[in-house]
Amino acid sequence: MVRQYNSDDLEEMIAIWNEVVDEGVAFPQEEFLDPDSGAVFFASQSYTGVAEIDGKIMGLYILHPNNVGRCGHICNASYAVASAARGKHIGEQLVLDCLKKGKELGFRVLQFNAVVESNTHARHLYERLGFIQLGTIPGGFRMKDGHFENICPYYHEL
Question: What integer best gives the mean pLDDT of the chain?
Answer without folding.
Answer: 97
